[in-house]
Each structure stands twice: as structure tokens, then as C-alpha cells.
Amino acid sequence: MKTSLPQVKQRSCGDCSACCTVLAVPGVDKGRYVPCQHLRQGNKCCGIYESRPEECNAYSCGWKVGIGTSAHRPDRFGVVFSIENTAFGPTLIGLETRPGRGESPEVVQFARSIVRGKDVALIMGGKDWRRVTNVPPGKERIVAEYVKSLSNPTQAKE
Ligand code: SF4
Ligand code: SF4
Question: Is the CB of residue 20 below 6 angstroms from any atom belonging to ligand 2?
Fold first, then answer.
């Protein structure tokens, strides 16, 4: 199976700041699903942009590197997708930005279309839930352990 996911563009975030709430950022002592204390201007920009932690500087969500159309920008679509190289290989992680959005048929269908035909696990989640699909054969246990670790509030960016 193919393993590659699209990573071709480097889009501008524009008014989106979804990852600044959804993701854990230990560098600013921020847990998952907590708005960063440094968000400014209606949560649309970073108040410490020039000195933000390297983990913020290095992060690009899946949309930013080319997944989906303009309608899939996380603040519009309601899900932040990230492509991660985990212990069980390339993984697409989708975290909803609005409660319940991650379970909507539109989002589930879109997420599955990204990993279909590829050896890529899919983890979908929200503030209080996780669901895993497309797990590579034989990797079920390590995937389950990884998902459990995501509940750790000190977990680094996902
Ligand atoms: S979620 Fe993606 S598009 Fe939105 S601010 Fe973060 S990196 Fe930029
Ligand atoms: S420090 Fe800035 S870029 Fe990093 S999470 Fe906070 S607001 Fe976002």
C-alpha cells in the first residue's frame, strides 16, 4: 500500500488559530483544548509571535501542507488534521474544534478519503473521546497504547 500523504503546499494560516486551542503546548504550559494565554485580537493571532516556542514555529497542520480545499481550513471545517510519524508509522490525527464535529458524516467521510488505500492509521478525537480506524495489521496494541497516552494533559503537540 502507499504510505504517502500530500505535503506539497505551505499555506498561510490566515485568521485560523485552531491549533492554539486544540493542541497541548508544553512550551507555554498549555494543555489540550485550552485556549493559549498568548492568543490576541479575538483569538486570531499570537501575542508572542516573534518569541513563540519552537514547537509552535515547527507545527503545520494537514491543511497547511495541502490536505483539502480552502473549505477544510480547521477553523472553517471544525477539525484540525495533523500528519504524525508515530511508533506505528504515519498517522492522520483529526481533532475536532467544535463538540461533535469529529463524528459528523462529512468529517468522517473526508478523513477516510485521505487514508483510503494507504498504510496510514486514522485517529479521530475530541476533548473527551478518541476513535481509531485503519490500523495497520498487527499494530492494534501499540496503537491503543498511543491513543491512551493522548489523554495525558502533558502530552506534547499531537
Ligand atoms: S490549525 Fe493549521 S491553519 Fe489553523 S493556525 Fe494551526 S497550523 Fe495554521
Ligand atoms: S504561543 Fe502563540 S503560536 Fe503558540 S499556541 Fe500560543 S498563541 Fe499559538
Answer: yes
Q: In the chain, how many domains are there?
A: 1
pLDDT in tens, 47-63: 999 999 999 999 999 99
pTM to 2 decimal places: 0.84
Tell me if 3 is assigned to some domain.
Answer: no
Taking the CA of residue 25 as reference, the ligand 2 atom at the shortest distance is: 5
pLDDT confidence of 151, banded at 50, 70, 90?
Answer: low
Q: Are 3 and 120 in contact (CB under 8 A)?
A: yes
Write out residues with Cβ below 6 Å of ligand 1.
13, 16-19, 60-61, 63-64, 73-74, 80
Q: Which domain holds residue 113?
A: 19-149
Backbone angles phi, psi at 111, to 5 degrees: -60, -45
Å from CA of 130 to ligand 2 middle: 24
User: Which residues, listed in sequence order, are joined to residue 30 by a DSSP beta bridge?
Assistant: 25
Taking the C-alpha atoms of residue 102 and residue 58, their distance in angstroms, rounded to an integer, is: 25
CA of 138 to the centre of ligand 1 (A): 33
